[in-house]
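Progress note, sequence design subtask.
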């Protein structure tokens, strides 16, 4: 699991802002004729030390470091505590500088206290805005991670949709073939074995080469032909130049299963499906001959589309008119580079 990025404030921001505040605090002294270089140093030193303390105190009082829940209100008891500590610290710094530099006359203590409160408020609000932005970003990252996990789970279920129904129908077909002593029973068993071997090999992969997907499809179509005979027709016109591209495994099987689910498949009314490439898309096209009472929820196609968006950042396209239904699948040509 990816480790959560820790909230940090750049040292450049902390020291840069503290030095800038120290310089700004000394500017009025430059226009005071009675000021000495010592006054400038004292003002700058007090402001710099005070600003650094306020920065680090507020940083380490954040929920990230204290293990407490974040308060939704910007103004709370932590701000009050920070102001009180700031006032005490400012008094200590002023007295310490008076003793250290042996200064007999300094600015009124109230001026330092007001300056300290102002710095405290500025740092506190700026830091908490940074922290709230950090939390928002982390929530976005966690949401994306959760979405990716959810999509993965959905797709696992989607891939498994083929197996129970298809296995049940295939075993029924095999039983019928055995009952009539069909000589192709052995070939049917081998193809069924091949298909489920492919299933086991590919189920943990996000993308596989189109050539492998078509190989799986061959076994799948053989089993369907044994079940529907001439009531099911697949025309594979895929350009071999696209074989090196990649798609999520079992996409074609799911789309064909979707066609069979919603359309009439019979000797009197064969279901014809065309498979071909168009630009950078793989197209699955079938003639619409809906079953009576068939209602499509679109859940299967939507799940496939979300998987494509997650893995290759492209969407499938659906073209539909009164007679034809097309699903255009985007192909990934960066598969080998990744």
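Output:
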């Amino acid at each position: 699991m990816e480790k959560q990025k820790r909230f940090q404030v750049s040292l450049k921001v902390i020291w840069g802002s503290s030095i800038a505040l120290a310089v700004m605090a000394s500017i009025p002294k430059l226009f005071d004729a009675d000021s000495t270089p010592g006054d400038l140093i004292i003002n700058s030193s007090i402001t710099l030390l005070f600003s650094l303390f306020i920065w680090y105190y507020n940083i380490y009082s954040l929920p990230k470091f204290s293990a407490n829940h974040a308060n939704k209100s910007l103004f709370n008891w932590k701000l009050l505590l920070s102001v009180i500590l700031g006032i005490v610290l400012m008094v200590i710094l002023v007295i310490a500088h008076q003793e250290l530099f042996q200064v007999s006359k300094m600015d009124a203590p109230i001026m330092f206290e007001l300056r300290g409160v102002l710095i405290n408020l500025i740092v506190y609000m700026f830091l908490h805005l940074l922290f709230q932005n950090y939390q928002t970003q982390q929530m976005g990252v966690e949401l994306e991670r959760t979405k990716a996990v959810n999509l993965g789970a959905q797709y696992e279920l989607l891939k498994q949709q083929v197996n129970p129904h298809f296995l049940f129908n295939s075993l029924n077909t095999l039983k019928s073939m055995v009952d009539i002593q069909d000589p192709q029973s052995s070939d049917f068993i081998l193809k069924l074995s091949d298909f489920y071997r492919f299933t086991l090999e590919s189920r943990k992969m996000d993308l596989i080469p189109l050539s492998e997907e078509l190989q799986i499809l061959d076994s799948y179509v053989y089993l369907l032909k044994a079940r529907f005979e001439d009531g099911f027709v697949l025309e594979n016109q895929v350009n071999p130049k696209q074989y090196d591209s990649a798609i999520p495994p079992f996409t074609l099987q799911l789309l064909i299963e979707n066609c069979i689910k919603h359309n009439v498949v019979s000797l009197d009314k064969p279901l014809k499906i065309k498979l071909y490439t168009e630009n950078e898309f793989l197209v699955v096209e079938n003639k619409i001959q809906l079953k009576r009472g068939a209602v499509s929820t679109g859940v299967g196609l939507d799940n496939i589309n979300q998987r494509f968006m997650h893995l290759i950042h492209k969407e499938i396209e659906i073209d539909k008119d009164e007679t034809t239904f097309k699903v255009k699948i985007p192909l990934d040509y960066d598969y080998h580079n990744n």
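Residues 109-179 form the longest helix (71 residues). Work on this subtask will continue into the next period as scheduled.
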